[in-house]
User: What shape does this take?
Amino acid sequence: MNGTKETNGTSKHVISEESIQPEEFQQRIATVRKALQPSGLIGLIAFGDCWRGANVCYFTEFRPLDGVSDIANALFFLGVDSPPILFVSKQCVDYASEVTTFAVHSFDELNAHLSSFASKHSDGVLGLAGEAYIPEDLHRRIKATIGPLTLTPHPILAEIKAVKSPAEIALIRKASALTDIAMMAIQKTLSDGHPHTERELALDADRAMLAHGADRTAYDSMVQAGPRSAFNLARPTDRVVQPGDLVMTDIGARYRGYVADGGRGFTYGAASEERRAIVRAAAAAVEAGLEAARPGITCADLNAAIQAALVESGYEKYSSEARGHGTGHGTGMDPEEEQPWIGPGNRTVLRENMVFTLKATITVPGVGGLRTERIVRLTADGVEPLDVFPMELYW
Amino acid sequence: MNGTKETNGTSKHVISEESIQPEEFQQRIATVRKALQPSGLIGLIAFGDCWRGANVCYFTEFRPLDGVSDIANALFFLGVDSPPILFVSKQCVDYASEVTTFAVHSFDELNAHLSSFASKHSDGVLGLAGEAYIPEDLHRRIKATIGPLTLTPHPILAEIKAVKSPAEIALIRKASALTDIAMMAIQKTLSDGHPHTERELALDADRAMLAHGADRTAYDSMVQAGPRSAFNLARPTDRVVQPGDLVMTDIGARYRGYVADGGRGFTYGAASEERRAIVRAAAAAVEAGLEAARPGITCADLNAAIQAALVESGYEKYSSEARGHGTGHGTGMDPEEEQPWIGPGNRTVLRENMVFTLKATITVPGVGGLRTERIVRLTADGVEPLDVFPMELYW
Assistant: This one.
């Protein structure tokens, strides 16, 4: 919107040297365009919001803002025979234009652009990315506009963006290191001998990530102690961590648009053998995954390695992963991305430079639990863990 | 799920003394129930997610977790003749049960419960809260289940929760104080004479809020300097703040489930009279709002006071508020709540203990801009600003 060099999309101070560069965004658009027809699509509609931005942030540095109105939403449209368009709130068009390498329009113009595209195609399928969270209101507007075309959820974008570029890996590596620092902060705080609540430890983790340069947390940090560690997912409370407790943590940092997702659990003080065994079993299961992971196998194969280890350890009843709910997921621009989903039945073949988590959750009501979750990158012949914090922890 | 005193919903360490107590949640449910029939409704379906949780968090301490799957969602259902139910992801049922004073079920059971309710009512309207962001997928499932009943967006919940209780006001007060601290941190950093980027200043603000006990930021902090301060909403970049710049900030803290939303702008170093005049005009417009605000007038009346001041100051062309886009919004559990919306045409009457923002944005392309946004509580005969940081800033 502003013609000066200072504010155009290629300015060094607006898009940092560490961030994804305009050329890479352009290349990604070309890759997706090339994949449309072989996928049976005449176009892609990719929805992202402020918090689950990957479908949009794959194409632009722009990420929507927080709100209950349309400032939280963005939509990327690419037709086989038309240039890409980013649709954002009218309030964000100027900013979005600054950091986007192609046309930006307000949602007010969505109808006209989609109608025009639809009028040139008597039939065909538009692939939808973000079908799990696109708002009903926006979905209805799109459907009302595309005439004879079909709008159908399609994995094309999830599959393409599952393989990360060197620039992306460098950023995820930073986010992973910041996540390790959060775990170190929790360990340091707990070692001072004073009582600490779940909430304090979560805050400590967040402060440490920000102190070392994280832009923010990737998601709200989870710290659950004692009986609460047996909840699969929960927010921290004022419960004081007690000697003998199992403690579950699930923490990630965000660095310049990329995130990590990590989980560690530990016993605190003199803990029962029953609780120590849970730590060991989860670590062993993830270790089995680290050993099995390599390009060429399917997500289902990799999942089976962790699942089998959990079943063998005897925790089948107390582990959602042992019961087949999946043992990992893609990570990158969002803490949780759709592919690769490491779960039963997923025939997606793992490829070099996919980045994802490998995890094992064990939750025994009345005893406690934890989730051990590593973030890894697939190498040419194996796996590189991007976080380094140890998995077997007895503090 | 766990019968011990340690983990039930009334435990002091799970729900802190500062937080909303179980009795208050129960009272809110009773208030909404009583309002259903007079509003022409046979029930309420209130949707909330991890980031826009107010519609659900009004009834329970539970807030969904971050994710692309259903862990991010929650749904509150109340029928005229049936007990309340909270629906959450299967993965969150145990935690949600711990902190909720009524029945919690998994989304897997949504169909059965809504069908059963619908089978007892041959017709009637279910009010929907959260219609702007309910996912299409969930909306479709509800529609397919309610048989002859109608599902229609309804403001009943937005209007009831717009008036805050003493416990809520105490929490918003804390969040507001933490937001003031963020502004002080930015001022302190800038006064050291070294160069600082927008991103560093945003990080400084976030670190200060967390250092003083904020659970997290209410939303991603905005700091925009120089030409970028003329964007209505934007994310911080590596642009170094230059002497003479106008700087826009929009920052809020979250404290135990409640948030503040604040904006301040300032000139940095020796700045032109043109830029200083923008700071003065925005402050004067908000000041006009602070003077006009009192119970009994409508949102539209209050909006008119700020809008008129902006028009009179000559910035009509450069201020979205001057052009009628609204000069404030409810704040509480989410940074932006639907009511009271301080905008033209809103005949909602302001009431004591409504909490909302009053704002004036001026953005002059090529010159710069700012948003001055205060968070206030309506008293019996006027207004109490909950933040104290001054509005006219020349650093």
